[in-house]
Specification:
Order of helices and strands: HHHEEHE
Radius of gyration: 17 Å
CATH class of the largest domain: Alpha Beta
Structural class: alpha+beta
Number of domains: 2
Distance between the termini: 39 Å
Length: 122
């Protein structure tokens, strides 16, 4: 796995917050050892908590990977997602926007993606 899940711009505090969030979704305390969690038989995670910025960015990243889009920088702030980078073509750009819009918690998208097609010449 890449350091910081491929998001080198994340601070250590942001990574720690993401880990704490992931642990909380399976009802684990951040200070619990992994072996203790398996023996407790935790109930299903609650989905009522609002989506924080790091989780939203990671969810959009997962959606883009599923849409076979890579190399996009994702920023999230209060439900507003900014997509930056270059994609292969206009079809990839459309897939990226569709995948981001379909991600729960996304309220608005700022598209700063550029299609590599504009740089092609004969």
């Amino acid at each position: 796995m890449l350091p910081k899940a491929g998001f080198p711009e994340l601070s250590d505090d942001e990574v720690a917050a993401a880990v704490r969030y992931m642990l909380s979704t399976v009802n684990l305390s951040a200070d619990l050892p992994a072996t203790a969690a398996a023996s407790e038989g935790s109930p299903a995670p609650s989905t009522s908590a609002p989506v924080d910025d790091i989780t939203l960015a990671l969810s959009v990243a997962d959606a883009l990977v599923s849409a076979k889009i890579g190399g996009v920088k994702i920023e999230a702030r209060n439900g507003r997602v900014t997509l930056k980078g270059m994609v292969e073509d206009s079809a990839a750009l459309a897939r990226a926007l569709k995948a981001a819009r379909a991600t729960p918690g996304v309220r608005e998208i700022e598209n700063r993606l550029v299609s590599a097609e504009i740089f092609e010449h004969d």
